[in-house]
Structure formats: structure tokens, C-alpha cells
Amino acid sequence: MTAYLTRRLGQSLIVLLGVSIIVFASLYLTGDPAALMLPPSASRAEIDAFRHAMGFDDPLATQYLRYLGHALTGDFGTSLRFGSPVTGLIAERIPATVLLALVALGWSTLLGFAFGILAAVRRGGAIDFLVRLVALSGQAIPVFWLGLLLIIGFALRWHLLPSSGYGRPINLVLPAITLGAYYMSSVTRLVRISLIEAMQQDYVRTARAKGLGEGRIVLRHALRNALVPVLTVQALQLASLLGGALITETIFGWPGIGRLAVQAIQNRDFPLVQAIVLLAAAVFVVVNLLVDLAYAALNPRVRL
Amino acid sequence: MRLSARPLAARGLFANADLAVGAMALGAVILAASVGPLFWTADPISGSMLTMFQPATSAHPLGTDQIGRDLLARVLFGTRLSVVIVLLAGAVGAVLGTALGLVAGYFGGAVDSVIMRLVDIQLAVPFILLILLVMAVVGPGIFNLVVVLGVTGWAIYARTARARALELRDLEYIEAARAVGASVPRILRAHVLPNLLGPQLVLLTLDLPRLVVLEASVGFLGLGVQPPTPTLGNLIGDGRAYLLNADWLVIYPGLVIAALVVGFNLLGDWLARRAERRAG
């Protein structure tokens, strides 16, 4: 267990270091980060002064180590746009994104499991077909299009729900539907297929043979085993959830990290963008680590 | 409630509808995008203030936009450009990933470790953010977009190529090739790669929906191909400002995206099942 944990932690660190290198290096794609960060109207002298002030004239390795050192102490530099520390700007926005993500994850997981189980149990029939159709549409509709359609319908035409705003539960409805739709579809598909596979295993036959009810077999025996693949893939899907948050928050004016990221990119506020990419990668890596550890709890065959 | 224990290959009444629906959606969109502009000759780039925000009429079957341009013409051209970008990006990812995967699997050792760690890193970065970051740095443009989108997809191809190369490298016919002095690039190209084309093509088809949505998202956020040149994403991004006056500007391009995604998904699923059945 300890050896496994150490190895996985090491891997996670390597991944994060790699991401930090990519994030750091991306500013040098055009050769000159100083010119990149200043408005096109900046004079040669201004660019030179800025380059020196930011330390862009030091050797690359020095710059990277300095960047990394600061990042490790929670200092991601100063926002070019807001003039205040990046860390504070991000911290302010975290609660809104976490709230939105949790609500979206919550409804989509519940509904996804319900649909998936229903389709697997009624496999090949009309319900299965309908569920697969819903799941496929949920995956086919791009997040931004779904969001705009919901705004057109529920906010502009029928005046039922607000298309923007923050603070009241009703403000959450459309963004949470938008963000969760894709996730719901993918949970549905995965639960369906893993459950169908699990239902063909020997232990299900054993359970039937000893006369257990079908409902109990599905929920207690097959589903428990079907959880492992679902969990793995869903953890990987988290990256796309973050991508979805970016767009959902932009469409609904939701004051979270995603909107901050898009604004930062549009403002060419690179220190802010770099920090958000690193943060997103860190969240992703940590979640995957936790999921790996959760395997042991769900599947006694996995020995760590 | 009785669960059947039918084998996976046996499918219900509706299962084969997949291919038909997928092929039809995809075929219609691609046909329209490729030959449509020959028949529908309205100008997609310039318009007239006299015709702005018109709902669908026979002169403008999908209506017009904020500066009076014909939406059908813009959607046709936008679809064409988006599909070309997505296919090229898919090819970039597939070629890059396959090459790296083959090298990793064939040589093993340190090369393998480094490449596979890169795969982990690639899979750990929320690529939409990275794409946006890189597009903001290098600037918008079709070439940049193809490369950046392409690079986001290489990891999955690398994994399968590596696995296959690992399996094959110690087989007798590969050893025989080595024994008669074939070079490594030749062995990989002539003896390992052909075994991979089928699986990689399935992966590519399954990866295309992701690229369609990604390309559209980047365009939507204004970092892809720049207006007035239309793409499916920037059409929706532009139309977003006029939801109250002209919601068709957002609805039609989105329908095309959905058709493409469904089409590629169903086609890919079908190809994957067929490959599975062949493999036994």
C-alpha cells in the first residue's frame, strides 16, 4: 500500500511538473513574451523595460525555476489586467465554480445511473433505444449550443428562468443543466455497458441460482462491480467538465474560474491563464489519485 | 423483471439503426458542404443592410444575419471549413500519436517511459484551456488551429500503437525482417504499421466528434478562424449577440454540429463493433 502510494504520488508530481513546463514554455512560442503581454502599440523601449522588469532576459532555466519556486509558495505572479496577485483573483472565484460543478455533477450522476440501469435491464427494447438516443443527443450537443438554446427557450421566449445572475438557487438551474448534460449522457452510456457486461459474469449466475431476486442481483451484485469502470472513465471526464465550465460560465455570466479564464485569455492576461491551467491540472491529478485509491474500497480484488 | 444473458454480439431490434442514422446525418452534411456552394451561390462574406435580420424566406432559406448576409451560404461554407480543419487535425493527431507509440513500443526502455509519461501529461491537461492559451499566444489562423487541435489528440493513438508494437516486436516475422537487415523505420512502416491501420482508423472516427466540438468551441470563444470567414463555431459565437432578434443565427449552425457529432459517433461505434467481431 505504502509503496503503491509513493509511486502514484511520484507519478502525479511528474505529471504536474510536466504541465508546469508546458505552461511556462507556451509563452515562448512566439519568441518574446514581453511583446506578447504588452499592447501592440507599446514602443521598443517600453517592451525592453518590461522584459527586464519581468525577468524575461534571464536564462530560461533560471526563469522556469523562479516561476516554479514562486508557484510552490502559492505566488503565481501579478495579473496584467487587474494589477493584483493572481492567487487572490482565483480564490475569489473558486466557490462559484465549485457550487456549479457539484450541482451539475449531482443531478447528472443520479439521472445517469437511473437511465443506465433502466436501459441495461431492458436491453434491446424500446426503453433502451430511447435512453441511448437521449444519451447520444446529450453527447452530440455542444455545451455552448445547449446553453444558448436553453436561454432562447426558457429565458427569452417563455420568461421562466433567468439567463444570468448569481446568488439565488434559480440562477443555478440553466447553468447546471447545461454543464451536466454531457456528463449525464456519458454516465448513462457507461453504466449501461458496464452493467450489461457485469450481468454476464458467473457470480450473477450464482446469485440467480441461489434464488436472489432480480432487483437485488442488479443493485447489489452487478452494479457494485460495474462501478469500477464507470468511476475510472468519469474521473478522466473531469477534464471535459472543466472545459464545459469554461463555456457554461461564459454564456451565463457565472462569476467562476471558467469565465475568469476566458476573460484572461481575451485580455492576454497570461500570468492569470497560466495559473488557472496549472490549477485545473492539479485538481484533475488529485481526483484521479483519489479514484485509484477508491478502487480498493470498491473492488476487493485490487490489492494496493 | 427478467434479465437476458444474451452475448454482447446479439443486439436488439434497434441496434442496426445506428449505422443508417449515422451515415445519413454525416452524408447529408458532408454532401451539402462539399457540393452545396456550387448550387447555392449567395455571397457568404458580404451582405446588404437592406436584408439584415430577415427570417427564413425563399430567397434566404435560413434567414439573414446582422449585416444582411445569407445564413445558408455562410453555414455551407462554415461547415466545409470546419470539417476540413477537423479532418486535418485528426490526421495530425493520428500520425503523430501512431509514430510516437510505435517508437515507444518497439524500443521500450527509457524512450518508452518518457513517451508514456508525456501521454499521462497530455491526458492530465484540460486541453481546451491549453488550446486557448496557445491560440492566444500564436494568434488565430487555420494552420495554427489545425496543429494545435491535432496535437491535443495524439495520446490515444500513441497508447494503441505502443501496445501493438510491443505485441509484434518479438514475433518471428519481425525477427526475420531484422535478421535480413531491414532498418528500424522500414520494419515499423512495412511490418508493424499495416497491422495498426484498422484500429487507428476506428479511433480516429471516434475522436472526430471531440474535435468537431473542440473546433466549434474555440471558434465560439473567438480564438479560431476569424470573421468574416465563417466556421460553425464562430457563426454561433457571432450570433450569440442577437439571440433576441435572430435566434436562427445560433440554431442552424448548432444543428449541423450536432449532426456531425452524431454521425461520426454512430459510424465510429459501428466500425468498432465490426472490428471487435472480426477479432472474434
Structure characterization notes:
The complex is a heterodimer of chains A (304) and B (280). Chain A has 304 residues and is mainly alpha-helical. The longest helix of chain A is centred in the last third of the chain and has 39 residues, at 214-252. Chain A has helices at residues 2-26, 33-37, 44-54, 60-72, 86-121, 126-140, 143-157, 169-198, 202-209, 214-252, 257-266, 270-298. Chain A has twelve helices and no strands. Chain A is flat, with a radius of gyration of 24 Å. By secondary structure, chain B is mainly alpha-helical. Chain B has one domain (13-30, 69-279): MetI-like fold. Chain B has eleven helices and no strands. Chain B has helices at 17-39, 71-107, 109-124, 127-138, 142-151, 154-168, 172-179, 184-192, 197-220, 232-239, 248-279. Chain B starts with 16 loop residues before the first helix and ends with a helix. In chain B, 48% of the residues are buried. At the A-B interface, helix 1, helix 6, helix 7, helix 10 and helix 11 of A face helix 3, helix 4, helix 9 and helix 11 of B.
Major beta sheet of chain B, specifics?
none
Instruction: Tell me the span between the first and last alpha carbons of chain B.
Output: 31 Å
SS element count, helices of chain A? 12
Cα Rg of chain A? 24 Å
Structural class of chain B: mainly alpha
Which residues of chain A form runs of ≥5 with pLDDT under 50? none
Distance between the termini of chain A: 5 Å
Shape of chain B: elongated
Number of domains of chain B: 1
Fraction of residues in H or I helices of chain B: 55-70%
Written as H for each helix and E for each strand, in order along the chain, the element string of chain B is HHHHHHHHHHH
